[in-house]
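Posting here for the record, re: manganese (II) ion.
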Amino acid sequence: MALEAYRRKRRFDRTSEPKGAARPRRRAKKLRFVVQKHGARRLHYDFRLEWGGVLLSWAVPKGPSLDPRVKRLAVRVEDHPLEYAQFEGVIPAGEYGGGTVMIWDRGTWSPDDPDVAEHLDRGELAFTLNGAKLTGGWALVRTRGYRSGESWLLIKRRDGAASTRDITAAEPRSVASDRLLAEIALAEGGDVRRAAAADPPPSKRSAGR
Ligand code: MN
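Prediction output follows.
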């Protein structure tokens, strides 16, 4: 897997997103995952799994749901460099993906079956997440028909971590900086109004956090 598509879409003299190392460092024993809340023209959550020296990436418009009955559309997008997992900040307006990015969750993941490439080909990847917000069993399943090949569903599997709690509304802050999206935009010169529109109203946030 390569980063040509990622690099082609971006102007690295304008954006502070990482270009990605020519040769990624040796893979750590534990595979990382990150979920970035991205207040772009349309809000979405970028779901990224470390594999093969890159971050496999899906854009999830509604974000993950802890409810196994709720299947969330996840559009496969270009692989991102591993360093992207540390990116939180503002992509300038007018640039690709312009908007505010938050590290919404992160941790480690493990595939149920080690042959990830085969499962990606087949369009069925089952895995376990060990993050601050997302834990337990999950699956990514490719849909047939419409935009076949790019269109997947992100589904929570039934286990002790499944819940009907609205995790994106209840846990809206960065796991890296504890900031809301509007606070990141304000600190880093982004569009505060657009970012604030993507933060849930205070009444929906969990108390005491
Ligand atoms: Mn994005």
